[in-house]
Specification:
This protein is α/β, with parallel strands linked by helices. The chain has one domain: Glutaredoxin. 37% of the residues lie in helices and 26% in strands. It is built from 4 helices and 5 strands, in the order βαβαβαββα.
């Protein structure tokens, strides 16, 4: 299951992670966000132990959305060694996300 990433746990779970991280910035009212939610959950299960997969609710964690300049959702950011190294905006099929994650492994 994808981790819930918040303003409070971001540093520990993302910036201090020794694994690549995929973060889905989303909101409950966002249709395309709901479309990719099952894909994000599948990826979190498949990559368990290899990567961290998390979700950031932009309504509840506006500080993180502002920090990373999230203007459209869904936006998926990919981190390595605590730094953003790739990004995907908008809904997409699973291979678009897994290809970016695989490149970081």
């Amino acid at each position: 299951m994808a981790l819930e990433i918040t303003n409070e746990n971001f540093e520990k779970l993302v910036q201090e992670s020794d694994k690549p991280v995929m973060l889905d910035f989303w909101a409950a009212w966002c249709g395309p966000c709901r479309m990719i939610a099952p894909i994000v959950e599948e990826i979190s299960t498949e990559y368990e132990g290899k990567a961290i997969v998390g979700k950031v609710d932009v309504d509840n964690n506006q500080e993180l959305a502002v920090k990373f300049g999230i203007r459209n959702i869904p936006t998926v950011l990919f981190f390595k060694n605590g730094e953003v190294v790739d990004k995907h905006s908008g809904a997409a099929q699973k291979p678009a996300f897994t290809a970016k994650l695989d490149a970081l492994l």
